[in-house]
Amino acid sequence: MRQPTMARRRLLFVPSAVALAVALAHGAAWAQATITMASTTSTEQSGLFGHLLPEFKKASGIDIKVVALGTGQALDMARRGDADVLFVHDQVAEEKFVAEGWGVRRYPVMYNDFILVGPKADPVGTQGKDIVEALKKLAAGNAAFISRGDKSGTHAAELRYWKLAGAEAAKGSGYKECGCGMGPALNIAASSGAYVLADRGTWLNFKNRAEMVVLVEGDTRLFNQYGVMVVNPAKHPQVKQQDAQKFVDWVVSPGGQASIAGYKIGGEQLFFPNAGK
After folding, report:
1. Are domains 30-112+225-273 and 113-222 of this chain identical in fold?
2. What whole-number distance in Å separates Cα of residue 233 and Cα of residue 104?
3. Phi and psi for 38 in degrees, rounded to 5?
4. Per-residue pLDDT tens digits of the chain, which is 277 residues long
5. Which secondary-structure segment (H or E) carries 51?
6. N or C, which end of the chain is more exposed by having fewer CB within 10 Å?
């Protein structure tokens, strides 16, 4: 058989080289289409992101790597420049984050509520609608209470309620901080017969309930607002601002808001979209 000439070899090589270059370019573009989101354990452990993020990828082609932390830790992560976008739930801390120049702008995106969960027997009689009165009873009765103790949005809310109850520094001998996420805190409470403040979304997705029930709900002070923010590239030039903003724009758009509303467990809606309100 006649061997290809040098010219022929060059012609054979060129298409392969072009194909390789194209493949590499596509690979590089795909690698860039990934952003890091610092978020709360409640959005992750409620199962929301397992529902929401595939919808965003379908719409944008962008992957999101989620790092689930307490809100305070998520904000610190963003201050270090280790995240591109934030999805958290402590409005006071979020507004301070933006005012200090760490975030470009805060967008309200959805809400649910906090609930007080505890043993069905409710030994100190907390059941009702008033979270402040319930905490007063917990403190007076030295009831077992598991606090997140992790500077999360839930922890920040809990501390506000203790302050309103006048028991900020005297929560009772049963008060314990776990320094953990919402799921682990619920597990500890369930295994020890303790009370715990939880977000409703994580509770609805929580399987290890034992004898735990919702005891306090419906107090307007238990309102739980979530916000999204792009980390300011003026502070950290490596932030993928354009792709991060695409997520923010999508999640507050009618499509993103409908996706949030569509996430249900047992027919019960976990989060309620309220972008622009």
Report:
1. yes
2. 8
3. -90, 125
4. 555 554 444 444 444 444 444 444 444 444 458 999 999 988 988 999 999 999 999 999 999 999 999 999 999 999 999 999 999 999 999 999 999 999 999 999 999 999 999 999 999 999 999 999 999 999 999 999 999 999 999 999 999 999 999 976 678 889 999 999 999 999 999 999 999 999 999 999 999 899 999 999 999 999 999 999 999 999 999 999 999 999 999 999 999 999 999 999 999 999 999 998 7
5. helix 48-60
6. N
In sequence order, what are the residues at sequence separation of 6 or more whose Cβ sits closer than 8 angstroms to the Cβ of residue 76? none
Residue 96: name the closest of 235, 275, 276, 229 by CA.
229
Which residue has tokens 């006649």? 2
Coarse DSSP helix, strand, coil percentages of the chain, rounded to the nearest 5 percent: 45, 25, 30
113-222 under CATH 3.40.190.10, yes or no: yes
- The C-alpha atoms of residue 186 and residue 147 are separated, in whole angstroms, by 10
Class of the CATH domain delimited by 30-112+225-273: alpha beta
Say how far apart CA 249 and CA 215 lie, in whole Å.
37
pTM value is 0.83
Output the CA–CA distances (angstroms, integers) from residue 30 to 24, 214, 225, 239, in the order listed.
10, 45, 33, 17
